[in-house]
Amino acid sequence: MYADVPSVTKPILHSKDLPHPVCPGSSSANILDDNNSDVEFKSISSDSDEFSPQENTPHLINQAEFNDLVRDLQLSRSKAELLGSRLQQWNLLLPDTKVTFFRNRSKVYSEFFKREGEYCYCTDIPGLFEAMNQNYDKTEWRLFIDSSKYSLKAVLLHNGNKKPSIPIGHAVNCKESYETMRTLINLIKYKEHKWKVCGDLKVIGMLVGLQGGYTKYCCFLCLWDSRAKQHHYVRKEWPVRNEYIPGKMNINHELLVDPNNVTLPPLHIKLGLMKNFVKALDKNSDAFRYLQKIFPNITERKLKEGIFIGPQIRKIMKDSQFENLYRLKKSLLGTHLKCL
Question: Which PANTHER family match (predicted)?
């Protein structure tokens, strides 16, 4: 017996006129009635042409596949050996696949390098390319030299960046000086190859024998006068530097590379132009205050010195509001900003 109250729903017998309710979002075709016996299950015999058994046997990895796997995962030497040990433990490697292959993976190329004191350098660059199954064409590569606080490196970069970089020289505990550059240039036999050279302005200055520090003629391309501040951002043309004679125009040493083979990296040009552009701005102008607004995390000291990174420079270049604020000033520095 059920109480005859509005809050109680009495049982209802379902029929053809009153079918079972279907849950929202589900199809009635997927709901099988207990009395539904019309469903047929088709079985396929193993002798039939339609039968295709599943492949349950594991794939055993050969040496080439294992090397590709380590390369794709970008594993170090120790982690590659650990992975190989686990795969061998689970019987997933072929018998001739070596787990310790990566212990001596650099042995093929180490014979092309030599160490003298603090320097490690390549003694046979064409032979190194041949060992890597690459054709060597010196016109396709450029020499990049850079240094950090504790080391100096020389790397071959492919023109177009379609191939990975190849280190050919390295030095530790060496100061960034003309003597260090001369030693490295001689060890890698630059005069035989005469690649195009790229680097920051400090490195390029050493390679062409310029005097370091805040000098009067600090540019290796022209005789730009750093003391004539009244002509900065006004004068566009300066005399070309045609002579590199030690003792003249702030040249202290002999040339290590041909200035015509020097290529300036675009990133350093952008950083330098942006730095001088912001330093020349009026600190009370709307444009400078707008820079403070869009870069609130940059300290005031860095902002006044124009210290930016690549993504920040690209953000400024794409900002139409900053461009409109700057155009109101009608300054010649707009040309420098467009050059970025």
Answer: APPLE DOMAIN-CONTAINING PROTEIN, ZAD DOMAIN-CONTAINING PROTEIN
